[in-house]
Every structure is written in C-alpha cells, then in structure tokens.
Write a structure and sequence with these properties.
The complex is a heterodimer of chains A (117) and B (113). Chain A has no helices and eleven strands. Chain A has 117 residues and is an all-beta fold. In chain A, strands 2, 4, 5, 6, 9, 10 and 11 form a seven-stranded mixed β-sheet that branches. In chain A, strands 1-3-8-7 form a four-stranded antiparallel β-sheet, with no helix packed on it. In chain A, a hairpin with a 6-residue loop joins β7 (65-68) and β8 (75-79). In chain B, strands 2, 5, 6, 10, 11 and 12 form a six-stranded mixed β-sheet that branches. In chain B, 36% of the residues are buried. In chain B, β5 (31-38) and β6 form a beta hairpin. With 113 residues, chain B is mostly beta strands. Chain B is globular and about 45 Å long. The chains are: A mainly beta (117), B mainly beta (113). Chains A and B meet through β5 and β10 of A and β6 and β10 of B.
Chain lengths: 117, 113
C-alpha cells in the first residue's frame, strides 16, 4: 500500500514569491493534516480536514497561507507571498478514523523542505 | 490546553547500551500518548502508543514506554540500541475528546560504535 505522497520534496524560492505544496493521502483516509516543522522543533498543526471540510484551521496564518481539499482526497497548501520565516519542513499526514473520540493514528509523508531566500 | 516537554534535546549513547528518552506532558483532560521516530529527510513514523489499559506498551524495533499518570510522564526505553536507531524522536499527546495532537520539540538520539 502506498504511503502519504508529497511533492515537491525540496523547494527554494525568493521571498515574496508564491509556493504550493501537494499531498496525496493514503487511499481511504478521510482525515488530512498539514503541519509545519521548524528546525529543531516538533510539528505544529496548520490545518486539519475531515473529507473536504477544514475542521481546524486556527493555526493557519490566513493572511498568506491557504489550503484546499476540493474532492476530499488530495490537498494543496499555498503560501503567497512567502517570507523568510516560512522556511521549514511542511508535513502532510492522514488518518482513517475521525479524530474525535478515537485514536486517529496519523501516517506522515516525507515532507517538503522549503527554503526562502 | 496541553503541552509536551522532552527533557533532553540530545542523547548520545554507545551501541548496545540501554537508553531512556524522557517525556513529560501537561493536560487538564485524559490523553492518548505517542512516540514517533523521524529518520533524516523522512516523515514521522509511529513507534508506539498508549490508549488505555496496561501502562507498559511495546512498540516496533524493540522500544517500549511506560505511562505514569501520577508523574505525567511517558518515557521511552530500549535495553540495547543499534547504530540504526540514530534518529529524532518525538513524544506527542492528544486529548481523548478532541483531535489536535501536540508534539514535543524532539530528542536527537545518536548511537556511537
């Protein structure tokens, strides 16, 4: 079974440029997460989807970040415009069960390492 | 609110020695607890999890962890480490009534020959 797929794996851009990351979760997983992992820190949740609905986007900087999961399968995270402080690894994860009242074990993709110059 | 503190940012050990990676958490509600491993340039992989029942849980690659409710700890242990265990280890908590997981800042385990 294929795991969570993310692309690109690496991206280098200049500040003020836009950038987009793509994630394809494990087949059948209805919950999808986007995390940001700064150097030397653990992942921090940006947004969580249940199917196509964003159920938790409280930590998403909405002035420059946007995400979509139109058909409840794959998802795109966009930053426009990028700032120096956005340099990080962006991780996508998926899980089978709904979070509430369940364990919701998450399966992580390899991440996209973004460098903003 | 919940938080996770991993008490050691770096743990160097020699091959075949035992190791303990410490994790303390804070939460006002019941939680599930997890340990993840992250190898260089890879995503996180679940090592083990505590949901309920026995406080000693066993995971993959010979790791185990013990949930201590009174001390709000979930320390990870392995009796004999290998070079291949060199990686970043993350402790995470999730409340049983909500979906958000909180991760610690990680512990870098370096196994020396």
């Amino acid at each position: 079974e294929a795991g969570v797929v993310q692309s690109p794996r690496y991206k280098i851009i200049e500040k003020k440029q836009p950038v987009a990351f793509w994630c394809n979760p494990i087949s059948g997983h209805n919950t999808l997460y986007w995390y940001r992992q700064n150097l030397g820190q653990g992942p921090e949740l940006l947004i969580r989807y249940e199917n196509e609905e964003a159920v938790d986007d409280s930590q998403l900087p909405k002035d420059r970040f946007s995400a979509e999961r139109l058909k409840g399968v794959d998802s795109t995270l966009k930053i426009q415009p990028a700032e120096l402080g956005d340099s990080a690894v962006y991780l996508c994860a998926s899980s089978l069960a709904k979070d509430w009242g369940s364990t919701g074990e998450q399966f992580f993709g390899p991440g996209t390492r973004l460098t903003v110059l | 609110a919940q938080s996770v503190t991993q008490l050691d940012s770096q743990v160097p050990v020699f091959e075949e020695a035992p190791v303990e990676l410490r994790c303390n958490y804070s939460s006002s509600v019941s939680v599930y607890l997890f340990w993840y491993v992250q190898y260089p340039n890879q995503g996180l992989q679940l090592l083990l999890k505590y949901l309920s029942g026995s406080t000693l849980v066993k995971g993959i690659n010979g790791f185990e962890a013990e949930f201590n409710k009174s001390q709000t700890s979930f320390h990870l242990r392995k009796p004999s480490v290998h070079i291949s265990d060199t990686a970043e280890y993350f402790c995470a908590v999730r409340s049983t009534n909500a979906g958000k997981s909180t991760f610690g800042d990680g512990t870098t385990l370096t196994v020396k020959p």
